[in-house]
Amino acid sequence: MQAQKEFHVTVTGSPQGNGSMAQPWDLQSALSQQPDVINGGDIVWVHEGVYDGRFVSTLKSTVKDKNVTVAPYHDQKVVLNGNVSSDRPSVLEVRGNNVTFKLLEITFVGDFPRHMADANFKKVDGVNHLSGEDCAFIALKIHNNPGSGFGSWKLTGGTLISGCQIFNNGYFSKVRGSGAGMYVQNSSDKVRLIKDNLIFNNYYIGVEVWSATTRATAAYVQNISLKNNVIFNNGLPGGHHKNNLLVATADRNGTNRASNIIVDSNILYHNTDIANNKSSGDAGSLQLGVKGGAPLKNISVINNVIIGGNNALRLNTAEDIAFDNNIVYGGYVHLYKAIIGNMSTWNFTDNCYYSKNIRNFRVIDYKDYTFKEWQQAFNIDGSSQWKNIKAFSLRPVLNIIQSELKPSEFYVSLFDKEGKHVTVDFSDYSIPEHTKYTIQDIASEAILSEGFLLSTGQVIFEMGTENDTYNNFGVYKIVFEK
Fold first, then answer.
1. pLDDT tens digits for range 258-285
2. Residues 6+ apart with CB under 8 A from 407
3. 326: which strand partners?
4. Does residue 211 sit in helix, strand or coil?
5. CA gyration radius for the chain?
6. Containing H/E element for 378?
7. DSSP letter at 30?
8. Residue 29 in contact with residue 56, Cβ under 8 Å?
9. Confidence at residue 2, expressed as pLDDT on a 0 to 100 scale
10. CA dist 346 to 25, 301, 313, Å?
11. pTM (predicted TM-score)
């Protein structure tokens, strides 16, 4: 059995090094090694520093069920800075199977153009995983790149994307903000799992499970699971709210249909004046299918919170869909006329819809239905309910994500209609009484407050407007001293 080997990278390392502590590599040299040097079970330790460049990883494992790992040495701060002169289209490009990347920060440092009309503008994505199955991207911080944050493409089945913060990526095109937080495809039978991520304030759509190709010859938007992600206010830096999540394809052949997609226990939020019972404006939060595109197949949308404007939820074309136990706050549920007569395999149960419009199910260019008319006309949502938005309420602690790699760190998503404060109970996490903690902004990591854990295991969070949210919603990082 091959013993685990460890290699070292420093800012001052060189191609002439051998990866030892005494003779470290530069980052690109380490990422270019072949399996006869670095293979499954080995670790590439990247030492603290800002690594200027745009990098290509061709690392891969030939050892069954063992990944190569690339991670900061002793949890040090490692930044990949793509704000350099280069023709490469992403800060980190990955071409290789069974590699795990952990705790890296991927960004543009300093000033750079973000409008296509600016001199020297160039679109550059954060991470592009172009090929290689069974990779993992864990607790990456991908932000402020003048392109999309993360591309997870069709030849990368079995990939895990977990615990990442993806925000403020994108640029201004001629007509709108561009650059998604994450763009996802998959041609493999292996499931792509996207879980526990925070994806917010990107210039365009938050997560695109999508293909724009209209004449596809193969299926490659399939077998994708999104679970327990918090996706909010995407499109806001570009001037207009865009869908936090889009699941669809533009294919006209019926070949590349978005299929076998699970959307489970996610929080999808756009700034909404809930205290004053508002739900107006263009602020789509979840869109399933596109008009004229290929019908979705085997889609499961369960246990999600979906908050937005007039078009918070858009359901376009689907062959079969399970939509269960979701909470929807918006003006209307938007549908297209093509759904009529094609809903026999739609299974809608135990949902709760909030709106101020009594006729809140709108089939575009056809008819607006009351909730009862919707139930009767389409034999759907029999165990669900409609309520006026004045009655809207949510559990104050929407979710708690404990860091997989740093168990003393948590990300909490909170709701308070009046924007005051929320009490969070950490007693299930075996944190000693009186442990010191700091509450931080999730983007800047600036300390907002600090204190000591109460004997009850509780911490009080004051609601605010960090990361340009309204004060009824917020996501915060809390760090307990070890």
1. 999 999 999 999 999 999 999 988 999 9
2. none
3. none
4. coil
5. 23
6. helix 371-378
7. H
8. no
9. 64
10. 56, 11, 16
11. 0.98
Give residue 251's identity as a one-letter amino acid code. Answer: D
For β-strands 447-452 and 436-441, DSSP reports them as antiparallel
CB 330 within 8 A of CB 307: yes
CB 241 within 8 A of CB 200: no
Q: Is 237 helix (H, G, I), strand (E, B) or coil?
A: helix
Q: Report how far residue 148's alpha carbon sits from residue 155's, in angstroms, rounded to the nearest whole number.
A: 18
- Residue carrying structure tokens 């890296």: 104
Residue with tokens 């290699």: 7
Residue for token pair 């290509």: 56
Give just the sign of the alpha carbon dihedral 52, 53, 57, 58.
negative
Distance CA 209, CA 305 (A): 18
CA-closest candidate to residue 425, choices 399, 396, 464, 456: 456
Cα dihedral across residues 244, 166, 228, 160: positive or negative:
positive
CA 213 vs CA 155, 183, 251, 257, 286: distances in Å: 16, 14, 6, 11, 21
Amino acid identity, position 185: Q
Question: Other C-beta atoms within 10 Å of 446: how many?
Answer: 10
Residue 466 burial by Cβ neighbours in a 10 Å radius (0-12, 13-18, 19+): middle
Q: What are the pLDDT digits (tens) for 280-336?
A: 889 999 999 998 789 999 999 999 999 999 999 999 889 999 999 999 999 999 998
